[in-house]
Amino acid sequence: MPLDSTIDRVTERIRERSLTTRAAYLAKIARAAEDGPRRAHLSCGNQAHAYAAMEDKLDLAQSRKPNLGIVTAYNDMLSAHQPYEHYPALIRRAAHEAGATAQVAGGVPAMCDGVTQGRAGMELSLFSRDVIALAAGVALSHDTFDAALYLGICDKIVPGLIIAAATFGHLPSVFLPSGPMPSGLPNDEKSKVRQQFATGEIGRDALMAAEMASYHAPGTCTFYGTANTNQMLMEFMGLHLPGSSFVPPNTPLREALTVTAVARAAALTRLGNNYLPVGEVLDEKAFVNGLVGLMATGGSTNLVIHLPAMARAAGIHLTLEDFHDISEAVPLMARVYPNGLADVNHFHAAGGLGFMIASLLDAGLLHEDVQTVAGSGLHHYTQEPRLSGDTLSWAEGAPDSLNDKILRPARTPFAPIGGVKLLQGNLGRGVIKVSAVAADRHVIEAPARVFSRQDEVKAAFKNGEFTSDCIVVVRGQGPRANGMPELHALTPVLAVLQDRGLRVALVTDGRMSGASGKVPAAIHMSPEAADGGPLARLRDGDLLRLDANSGTISCLEPDFDTRPVTLIETEDSAEGMGRELFKAFRAHVGPATDGASIVV
């Protein structure tokens, strides 16, 4: 099937836009690769320090075996990362079997957005992505590695690791997932319990029981939020082994995939005949494939911030128009919570990413001619892994969806578009995810209720102040103001109002969780209010119109454009829970439309 004209056009304009920066990037990683194997350039003293604690120090010092650097985001507070505790020992054994060596190069922080929702710590969440990139850079700066293995899954961790991998683009790189936890309390039941708690129908004991039944075991949370969107991206962009993203942790197949990924990393180094620097994998086509996957799966809006930052690290420039145009061309093929009732385990069982990639390739909506860690061509990712005894192999994936309530072909999708739309008007530029929003709520025109903190919204709700249609504006939530926290804690409140029959929406310069969905939300509004953006001119009662169909967001008051801005108070976010350490981040961070980064 010929490549879809929109996919071709968007790819070409990204290439043209990035021509100078991409060429400079490729020249940089080529220079870094010219020196050959890294350890050869270290002095004897340098090497002795690097190998002192290793059992296989003679292999490291005397042989030309590849040495693999492990960058790990392990901690045992994140359920998704807890399985990584035993990966380094397994990787070292697998490296020996593959004729290589491996060392933990360093660890990176990994915070849980589920723990910090609505708390002060959430104001560090987005910035943690850049800290992860910096920490990984420190780990790899020892310059003793021929390839890198990245252990990371959750919200900011994979984007931060990608930024680091691209920066060290001369190194072959393979990302290793750990898989989702078993299905627990269905996500729609969990959401219902949260709404009941918000209205006072149940107590905290019932809420706690529901939450513990939802998040209950090692592995990734099973809803389709940012963590699982990251895992999807790693397959669509060719950085996982095919079919490995949603294999459960602590299973024989999971271990076999990890062992094989280590061997694959060893085979891709400059010491062999299949050298593949990750900077060549992370090209314009790979990022377009990632955008296609984001739209086809109804993925997290957080990636609208992360993907531009990830791409910039590889010399590639993405814009909101790229997201919008690809969303208009790519059908929605999956219904996974919050866009449906299924979880990622159900999605995987129905055919998963292998079926989806095959269908999108057949429809001409993906670039097949890409480099991946599995080999040349995205067709490798239409296959699924099989374990027979101790032998791992790949076979063609399901030719048809095994549950068309969860997964459908590209030619008969759930919706003709992916659902992430660009919004722009006199309130600025932002995005809205409409894949889980009912069609009759794609346009909301109502008076504004303006708040500066999400706690103020909750207090107004408890006081019974929301009795008519309104658009809730929460401003002062951008990266410069307070680090751009997720406002997911508002989801139950807004959902209750909507269920009561009110026409409501959210407008904010902050973020919403990847698990948010059915209430229309204009997010990432830029310029942000703290930077003098249009939201700083809004007043209670202003008539606003959010129109996802036309892609517009406006204040309809005739004097709006000439009003002075309101000073956005940020003192509450200046200190406490480590926020004082991030003062320089808030002062120098770029706009959300460019990835809200300070390092790229």
Automatic annotation (TrEMBL):
Reported cofactor(s): [4Fe-4S] cluster
Record keywords, A-Z: 4Fe-4S, Carbohydrate metabolism, Gluconate utilization, Iron, Iron-sulfur, Lyase, Metal-binding
Catalysis: reaction(s): 6-phospho-D-gluconate = 2-dehydro-3-deoxy-6-phospho-D-gluconate + H2O
One GO biological process term: D-gluconate metabolic process
EC class of the enzyme, as a word: lyase
Entry's Gene Ontology molecular function annotations: 4 iron, 4 sulfur cluster binding; metal ion binding; phosphogluconate dehydratase activity
Official protein name in the record: Phosphogluconate dehydratase
Binding site for [4Fe-4S] cluster: 154, 221
GO CC terms, sorted: cytosol
Pfam families according to UniProt: ILV_EDD_C, ILVD_EDD_N
Domain Dihydroxy-acid/6-phosphogluconate dehydratase C-terminal: 405-596
Record's function text: Catalyzes the dehydration of 6-phospho-D-gluconate to 2-dehydro-3-deoxy-6-phospho-D-gluconate.
